[in-house]
Amino acid sequence: MKNHKMLGIASILLAAGMIAPVILVLTLKEGREYIKKDWDDILRVTFVCPISSGDEYWKAAFQGMQDAAEEIGNIDVNMVGPEKIDSEWIGAFDTAIAARVQGIISTGTSEKVETKISEAARENIPVVLIDTDIPDSDRICYIGLDNFRLGSDGGEFIARQTGGKAQIAVISLGEQALNFIDRTKGLQSVVEQYPEMEIVVSEIAGNSLEAAKTAAQILEEYPQVDTFFCIDGTTPKGVAQKIKELKLENEILCLGLSSDTEILERIEDGSLDATIDLQPYAMGYQAVKNLDAYHRGEQPEEIVIPDTILVTEENVQEFQRKKDTKM
Fold first, then answer.
1. Do both 157 and 252 map to the same domain?
2. What is the pLDDT of residue 216?
3. What's the confidence (pLDDT) of residue 4?
4. CA geometry: angle 73, 127, 99, nearest 5 deg
């Protein structure tokens, strides 16, 4: 049986505009020089996204970019990427580079992204990474998650809720994504501190429907499992749905990530115990602010990690109200 005493986490949203005198040559890490382009009145920025429609996480990030662009006034932001999750989504970088935009925002969830960042750098196009970093790449800065810490935070939450006694199933959208790998390592680092906590099984599910089926299979094959940690924003929906169907809300602890509408609804109905909001809006907002600062001659802070928010039944309604006013 799980302990329903939940702990909320306060957050500080990022918001900082940076202005500096314009210079023509900017020298960044490792001596690479980026030449400021003649972008006239409009700075064209492209968001290269793993999925361009239907995903509320990336939609929130793009909304943050648009709001920052509107505040600044001379920036136009567009989004390119496949309509569905596709391993070849990084090919959309080619579209942005060919268009000779003045900035690219993307995520480092694939090692192949590093090559595309280098190609953009050779064309003097600065790249800002959000969500997942590639530290040794030519990106000018990173705004996003410490995915190892995110996994360890999830592990600590599980430890608190279960008294350090948990048989955990991990479900993700893909084992090769760098962010999922780091999140699992972070969880494992906490599990190793508790003799009665164990990761029993790790499975992959391509969407929420598959996640529901996977959860059912896990509960049948591993009846000792009493905790699910879904380390993305899609699989928690399916797992929570299956928990509700099986009427196991009071028996199974379920933790997810992200904060789209359905996930918040699952928290309200008790099938999902908590989720960690990843602040995609703040990431997108600050990414555009940093590109604007870069083009005005200021070197942005290289790494910015927004605070995350733990959303539970205790604060979900307040969180939803704040989210609605922002979006």
1. yes
2. 98
3. 40
4. 75
